[in-house]
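User: Structure please.
Assistant: Input sequence and predicted structure:
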Amino acid sequence: MTRKNQPYNNNPVAEGNEKSGKHKKNLQQKSSQENGPQDNSPESGDYTLQIDGISCANCVTNVERALKSVDGVEQADVNMGTSEARVKAASTDINTLIRAVEKAGYGAAAIDELGYLQDQSPGAPSEAGDEADHGGTDKADRTKTGEEQSAGMEVPEAGHKRDTHAIAPRTSRFRKKFWIALPLAAVVFVLDMGPMAIPAWNEWVMQNLTMWSLAQMVITAVILFYAGASFFTGAWRAAKHGAADMNSLVAIGTGAAFAFSTYAMFFGREGGVVQPNEIYFETAAIIIALILLGKWMEERARHRSRDAMAGLLELAPQRANRIAGSSYETIPVKDVAVGDKLLVKAWEQVPVDGEVLSGQASVDESMMTGESVPVEKEPGSEVVGGTRNTSTTFEMTATRVGRDTALARIIKTVRDAQSSKPPIQRLVDKVASIFVPIVLVVAVVTFLLWLWAGSPAQAMVNMVAVLVIACPCALGLATPTGLMVSSGRAAEKGILIKDAVTLEEARRADVVMFDKTGTLTTGVMQVSRVDVTGDDTLTNNDLLVLAASVEQQSDHPIANCIVRQAGEKELPLLDAEEVETFMGMGITGMVSGRKVTVSAHTVYESYDEQKKKYIEEAQDRGETVLLVRLNDRPAGFITVSDEVRPEAADVIARLNRMNVETVMVTGDQYRNARVVADRLGIDHLEANVKPDEKAKIVERYQQLGKRVAMVGDGINDAAALVQADLGMALSGGTDLAMSSSDITLVGGSLDKVVEALDLSRGTLRIIRQNLFWAFVYNSVGIPLAAIGLLSPMFAAFAMAMSSVSVVTNSLRIRRL
């Protein structure tokens, strides 16, 4: 509920900060709301659906096939780990996509990249998996049209934030069903095996065998059709749509054991007596109990794998205090518009990205930078939505809202990475799409061969074992869970990975190129010296003013430091006209009737020995010498320096230990660039390089067979970032719009370059382990089950543990 017109006494600092003694000016009238609330809906043609009922890799294929059958759909990718579908379509609407999914037997709800449910058809469910215990539903089967509500589902109000732990209710449900099935299965097991261990009991049982078997049948029926109902409803749903999945295998296997035992109990008697060796109720009961145990453990592990994403979503503020005159109203964050004036109290989260208007405060930005020390903010400072005000109240104006905020873009990047598929996963999907039908054929052949051999009971047992052990769940989870944990772990480290292909490229990178200014160095340049060498009537301050007057129209770090130096000296700047910037060369303009040129390119031949020595000594110190010309004649030098990042040398050393070559690419003169390269231990140096030449250098290394990762700040090296096999952009504050990079390193620390490479190598290694064991498990288990060397109960346990082991192995990525 919106709280309106909360007054305060024109001294918001006083709230929670009476001791500070600071007094703020009277509030101004709030800014115009012409822009209105930010639209959080997805971009036209890009849709995200939360899918209900995905139980295995075959379900993934079924949903993708249903979505791709819709006219206008260009691409559809379903992720089993996140239970989400990403759809790119040239011409369709969200309701058509939802109906296509429902027609295939699954539920769907539209969500955006921020995790908000969107307007949808009446039949859309609110939470994936609410009644889908690993694929089925405990209630009636779903309707096929959007006009009828899906069984057990509630239609959410559009705009409500979805449960980031939606998997938790499903985990609780598996736990509940398991604890129902376990004691009942134990009773069936005792009823079946007890008489063998107690001779006196055995004699009584044999005299009342029909009643004994009937008790087993009734209890087993409760286990199968109540605790395990989801498997049967899921199998029926798939069969209605001409498909088969994990539910089909479990339902057919346990159903066959139950049906065979029931038939044997009523019609398989010899001399009117039930034959105990043909009763397998305990097999069906224990299989369901073990599979429920496995699913419970699997969902718990998958829940843990989503912790990083859940943590990101929990950072998103829910409320904002919008200022109106001398009061404020508390509104949902999604209603904040660009230009709104907001009040941020002590210990509240900053609601959206913006700029401080008045007040001073300390803000905890650890969610963005990883640094625990709060950052001091004052009027004009940039603040990021989701960070926390740890001191005094301040006012701010909203500059980015909704999906444009830094946090929203981080969340979207992580979700995109989790939903993407590496090439190896597409191969797995193709194999999985035909896996279940092949298993069904193998099971039938197994049954017929053993039946032909004269052993009907053994035929049934072996067929059940084949069906139960062959679930492709592990195959379906091997890659998505690895990507889910990896992208979440990367986000925790401030590493935003674009997609799964990026991980592969990062693993293969054997050359890392670094831009110098702002990448290997801090980018905060300082003017070291100003020296007039020409016109005797000029002073050093005069030269600085002329240079700063033209440089004030440039955003280059060198230009900024010259302008800043003039400001620190309180020197008034002059108006500059006809200003032209020459990329990588310099800047020129007219100031007070004189042509002023500032350039880093010096012509040594035109200097006397004293000036050459001046330049060389500066370059030997790693400094950059700028030549200032007046009316095309040398007037003096401005020397600037840039501090090397403190972590740079260690990063280069770690890359060398990883057998990765390092290259520094810079527009600086070779001499002073060589000083920095030698100090850091960089293998190769490319100096005097213009910005448009960096991409050509990357291409040259690629032609030598190298896999190149380019690290830059995304300002003057965008082309090189695109050309590289892997583009890595350093980013600070809210500047996350690095469309040219594959990986964005939030916070600007170079350590994250090595961490990104380590994480990618570890992730791909663990994913390959998952796939290897998933394939080996099925390749070995199915033949053993077919020839009778694997009991159905052991097969059920092995099947359940295969999925758990894959997810648990993926969780190891959290320690990388």
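The two ends are 43 Å apart (CA to CA).
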